[in-house]
Design a protein that fits this description.
CATH superfamily of the largest domain in chain A: Winged helix-like DNA-binding domain superfamily/Winged helix DNA-binding domain
Shape of chain A: flat
CATH topology of the largest domain in chain A: Arc Repressor Mutant, subunit A
Order of helices and strands of chain A: HEHHEEEEHEH
Oligomer: homodimer
Helix content of chain A: 40-55%
Number of strands of chain A: 6
Strand order of the largest sheet of chain A: 1-3-2
Distance between the termini of chain A: 52 Å
CATH architecture of the largest domain in chain A: Orthogonal Bundle
Chain lengths: ~120, ~120
DNA sequence: GAATAAATTTAGAATGATTCTAAAAAATTT
DNA sequence: AAATTTTTTAGAATCATTCTAAATTTATTC
């Protein structure tokens, strides 16, 4: 656990939303001003392998990262492209049975129109 | 529905696996040799909007496409990077309730080690 | 059915996220 | 402390996707 890896992890842990690699890089620079983008990517991969963070592959070009391991799904708004979390039951057991062997992780992605955009739509349809 | 859009849709519908945009482009050229890559991308987006195909955002950099609308999840092997389908119950109703409004589509992604890779692992661990 | 307008296609340039590379720095082992 | 391994760094390279502007096709109007 180098200082750089700790900084990347700290940024993700203290985030109130899901950051992209670029956003993590910007914030890690506030802790270690000389940190390089490549190091952020290296450590995101390492931390994912060590299961300290999870990668969210969304609708956008860039992935986002999450440090929560409480089972939850992700809601992707198709209008404002916002992402929010939502509770889901723990499927792990059922999925392992369906997959015919132990699973690694799972992600439930839902595309929808978020309450904010839905309201805005009603005002000017 | 132009000839180009029909060709793209035909390639996806007759596929036995999930192709990337590049793979679709290669196969569409067998039908319309002058088709351009940009046209394939245009039509993939249009077909997705029209709900004739679904986009699968996986572990790789490039998205893949599916023409099946039978509810199913995708299993991503973390070793060989293969993708396979698996049956899941239709969550739509439950998800709409959880999301607090109608949902657009959903995708259940599972990362695991596929049976082939698991066996190969046991032989030389 | 020709004239006009709108939409689509094309080839290639541009963009942008991520990966690669090779040298320097840091950490670890002997 | 010398030697080895791992990590970091800056910047170049890659690769999927989007953008652009001109050409073509399709639809609409007279």
């Amino acid at each position: 656990m180098t200082r750089q890896r700790a900084a990347v992890l700290e940024v993700i842990r203290s985030a109130k939303c899901h950051y992209t690699a670029e956003e993590i890089f910007e914030r890690a620079k506030e802790i270690l001003p000389n940190i390089s983008r490549a190091t952020v990517y290296n450590n995101l991969h390492a931390l994912e392998r060590e299961r300290l963070i999870r990668r969210i592959t969304g609708e956008e070009a860039s992935d986002r990262y999450d440090s929560s391991f409480i089972p939850h799904g992700h809601l992707f708004c198709t209008e404002c492209h916002g992402i929010s979390d939502f509770e889901v039951p723990d499927f792990r057991e059922a999925l392992s049975r369906a997959a015919g062997g132990e699973i690694d992780s799972y992600e439930l992605k839902v595309r929808y129109v978020c309450p904010g955009c839905r309201m805005a739509r009603q005002s000017n349809p």
